[in-house]
From TrEMBL:
Gene Ontology BP terms: galactose catabolic process via UDP-galactose, Leloir pathway
Organism: Microbacterium halimionae
Protein name per the record: Galactose-1-phosphate uridylyltransferase
Family membership: Belongs to the galactose-1-phosphate uridylyltransferase type 1 family.
Domain of life: Bacteria
Length: 388
């Protein structure tokens, strides 16, 4: 297989970023661990790939003001393939996967994204005739039958070349490499014209809807500020720009604290919706990963692993979850929205899940099953028994 040496860039914590492209022109980035054993050379993607699907279309829901991306190409994505056909494993003679070489951490553009790939065509030096969103006023206008092109960008973040696992199964060194990748991608994606918010996340477990057991997450870069963040901005407008500082003080004084370090505190929130719900807040105001310091990232790596392993220690089998990194939008709210992690799981017992039925799904009116203080006590006990 033909080799090349991708452009190398040193990042924090000894991580090296290597930039290259896949056969159809999509970006691929390797993030090498500080103690990597990998050579600088990487294999070239020599696959004969079809053209990427057309960018999806967003439709306006006039009842809520939400924009719904209709991404039909996602119907064809891989569904629970066997290990020998894992599309996120390094390529082999019998597996023409998405990543040509072995790797520590790899990030690449999604082949069938919910948002993109027409971002450059819409906002480049010579914009094409693409019906992209044209700012806040355009998106806020309510009228029937409104559509816009789903410009943006979706990336896949592979935590390991192994076929199965999750973020929580990684080493501290590997977790630190992923955090460095999140920070690097947040900075780059936030600088792209047309991007309004960057969202790193991990879905874990078939109960959540995961279609690949490979340890990976995603980064969505939206052409608008998401509905959840718009509600947060509304709460800050009513509650004050220091809302997150007051939340941190309030939770640190409670019995719901799970872990507290020099830079981060993890807790079960006062009004937790889910049977398992953990929030993690930095002690100072930072809008996104790109604004965190090396010291904050260094502490985050083992603390995050302890939280995830603590969740898994509650039961004999792995617990499904969504780990969502809420970051401030690119252009608004950065002085008041503090980046934070929300880990949520529908698992309410060893063999029971919480389903979002009539009240939650139809009306958005939540009913909690487990008192947050009880959940915190169980989680603290579980976390005390894990090591990283």
């Amino acid at each position: 297989m033909t080799k090349n040496e991708p452009t190398a860039q040193p990042l924090g914590a000894g991580v090296i970023k290597r930039s290259t492209r896949l056969a159809d022109g999509r970006d691929l980035f390797y993030y090498d661990d500080a103690n990597t054993t990998l050579a600088a050379e990487r294999a070239i993607d020599t696959r004969n790939l079809a053209a990427r699907p057309e960018t999806a279309t967003m439709r306006l829901d006039v009842l809520t003001g939400d924009w719904i991306s209709i991404a039909a190409a996602r119907q064809n994505r891989a569904f629970l393939p066997p290990a020998e056909l894992d599309p996120l494993s390094p390529q082999s003679p019998t597996n023409p996967s998405e990543i040509p070489s072995t790797y520590d951490v790899a990030v690449f553009e999604n082949k069938s994204p919910s948002f993109g790939p027409a971002l450059a065509a819409a906002f480049g030096d010579a914009p094409a005739a693409i019906d992209a969103p044209q700012g806040v006023d355009d998106l806020n206008t309510i009228d029937l039958g409104r559509t816009r092109t789903s410009v943006g960008r979706c990336e896949v973040v592979c935590f390991s070349p192994e076929h199965s696992g999750s973020f929580g199964t990684q080493t501290v060194t590997r977790a630190r490499t992923v955090i460095e990748a999140w920070a690097d991608r947040t900075a780059t994606l936030s600088a792209m014209p047309g991007i309004e918010q960057v969202f790193p996340f991990e879905n874990r477990g078939q109960e959540i809807g995961v279609t690949l057991p490979h340890p990976h997450g995603q980064i969505y870069s939206y052409p608008y500020v998401t509905p959840r963040t718009q509600r947060l901005l509304s709460s800050i407008e009513r509650g004050g720009k220091d809302l997150f500082a007051r939340i941190l003080d309030f939770e640190q004084a409670s019995e719901r604290v799970l872990l507290r370090g020099e830079h981060w505190t993890a807790f079960v929130p006062f009004a937790a919706r889910w049977p398992l719900e953990i929030h993690l807040l930095p002690h100072r105001h930072v809008a996104d990963f790109a604004e965190t310091t090396d010291a904050e990232r260094d502490e985050l790596a083992p603390m995050y692993l302890r939280l995830l392993r603590g969740i898994d220690a509650l039961y004999e089998t792995p617990t499904p979850y969504i780990a969502a990194w809420h970051q401030a939008p690119v252009n608004i709210g950065r002085e008041s929205i503090r980046m934070h992690l929300e880990i949520t799981s529908p698992r309410r017992a060893a063999d029971k899940l919480k389903y979002l039925a009539g009240s939650e799904s139809a009306m958005g009116a939540w009913i909690g099953d487990i008192p947050p203080e009880s959940a915190a006590e169980r989680l603290r006990t579980a976390i005390e028994g894990v090591t990283v």
